[in-house]
What does this fold into?
Amino acid sequence: MHFWRYGGHFRDGFGFPNDGGFGFSFLNYLPLLFMVGLIVLVIVLIVKQSKNSQAHHHQPSQEDRTNDHAISIVKERYAKGELSKEDYLELIETLKESQ
It folds into this structure.
């Protein structure tokens, strides 16, 4: 009886025939809401992963900074004439091997 009263189709509020309600079912929107939530979650995870990988690439370790500083000191001393060419090359080679 309800079927014909609504012009040949059911109007339902919450998935059930209804004599007056919202005219649509909230349950119809659950798959859409799920997909939107899933897309937002994937985007958030990608952004977090991107930030983490950038942080690891741009920050040299303390050991690398110390080694770079030591190499610059050796180059400076060689430029001032405090080291011979042999000593300079030996020190640079030793410091590069320790990296």
